[in-house]
Design brief:
single chain; alpha/beta; DNA polymerase, domain 1; TIM Barrel; 10-stranded mixed β-sheet; two-stranded parallel ribbon; binds S-adenosyl-L-homocysteine
Length: 354
């Protein structure tokens, strides 16, 4: 019986200490348990060998340890990218990607099971939102990957399935936990959070004292084109989204990374490159061009490589810092949500309840 039990891995050390004091336990027990959960990635109370059997039983009556189960793993043959499909405790599935870079190992995590934002080119949103992930479920993607690969993860990008600003409180808790000195102690500066542009929460996020890199999914230089690709643009005008980005930079000193997925014939012409250049000119920012990863449910095509290079050249004329995202793990369908989607499709085809 797991329902009703409290999620131990989502408590901060302060909260855990309060819980333990209320149970009549000593304060240092909370530190020991926090260490098991966040440094050693424990998945069972039985692993906590420095606690008495009695205390372990007492804890197991009140708390549960949320952990993820590996369902599938796809390793790229072109690079060292590995994509994991994990099952949550309620058997919903999410995906996470492990990537190796010169500067360290990075994991791309999901923030929700499914997504309700509806971006037209994205596979993660096709089945809608199932539910928000708990802080423990975001952490576990990193802990499990460290355990399964035997590698240390130094960077995290919250760019997998889901809209992090649509799961705000859990996102912020996750960020505080992953950077807790008594846990993984990850540098907040090594974390990137990507949003489709939920203005109120971006502004709130600027006030949290968490200087993560904010990536804004821009994808078009004007409201009209943006609305064609991203339904969320009907709710928030581009000028308000950009003002929220400026505010974030002002408050945190972190330059914004603008994501621009290039879709053939939709947003990749020279006129659009110039409009984007004018829009971002003079801002301390960075533009990441992503040749769109076509998904079978939509007719969108990737811009030609020549167009991508040309788009970059035009932007650079406005003194904008531009990179083209290196396609890691292209052979394993590393685009957002594709592994999860194909898993759900095959489960449905087998007639399983999903
Ligand atoms: N919800 C967040 C994070 C998830 S997706 C957001 O919207 O930013 C991370 C990035 O990948 C976003 O910029 C998203 O628009 C982009 N993306 C999603 N599907 C894609 C695809 N098929 N090809 C290229 N980029 C894609």
């Amino acid at each position: 019986m797991l329902e009703g039990k409290k999620d131990l891995r989502s408590f901060s050390l302060e909260e855990l200490t309060e819980e333990f004091l209320a149970l009549g336990e000593k304060k240092f027990r909370a530190t020991q348990v926090f260490d098991w959960l966040h440094k050693r990635g424990a998945t069972e109370f039985s692993q906590m060998t420095n606690l008495s059997a009695g205390l372990r039983e007492k804890l197991a009556d009140v708390y549960r340890i949320v952990s993820l189960r590996e369902v599938t793993r796809l390793a790229s043959s072109q690079d060292e990218t590995v994509k994991f499909l994990f099952a949550l405790p309620d058997d919903k599935v999410i995906e996470s990607v492990f990537m190796k870079y010169k500067h360290g190992n990075s994991v791309c995590i999901s923030s929700q099971a499914g997504c309700r934002m509806g971006c037209r080119f994205c596979a993660s949103t096709l089945g809608g939102l199932e539910r928000n992930l708990l802080p423990s479920e975001m952490l576990e993607q990193i802990y499990r990957i460290q355990e399964l690969t035997g590698e240390r993860v130094s960077n995290v990008v919250v760019m997998g399935t889901g809209e992090p600003m649509d799961n705000y409180d859990n996102l912020v808790k996750f960020l505080r936990l992953i950077s807790a000195p008594e846990g993984q102690n990850m540098s907040i500066r090594n974390i990137t959070v990507s949003t489709c542009g939920i203005v109120e929460n971006m502004r709130r996020f600027a006030e949290e004292g968490l200087p993560v890199t904010l990536a804004l999914s821009l994808h078009a230089p004007n409201d009209e084109a943006r609305r064609r690709l991203m339904p969320v643009a009907n709710k928030y005008a581009l000028k308000d989204v950009l003002a929220a980005c400026d505010y974030y930079f002002e408050k945190t000193g972190r330059r914004i990374s603008y994501e621009y997925s290039l879709v053939a014939g939709e947003n990749d012409t020279e006129t659009e490159a110039d409009a984007l250049g004018r829009l971002l000119k003079g801002k301390n920012c960075h533009v990441n061009l992503i040749p769109v990863n076509p998904i079978k449910e939509r007719e969108y095509r990737q811009s030609s490589f020549k167009n991508v290079l040309n788009f970059r050249k035009r932007l650079e004329k406005y003194n904008i810092n531009v990179t083209i995202r290196r396609e890691l793990g292209a052979d394993i369908g590393a685009a957002c949500g594709q592994l999860r989607k194909s898993h759900l499709d095959s489960m449905a085809a087998q007639g399983d309840a999903v």
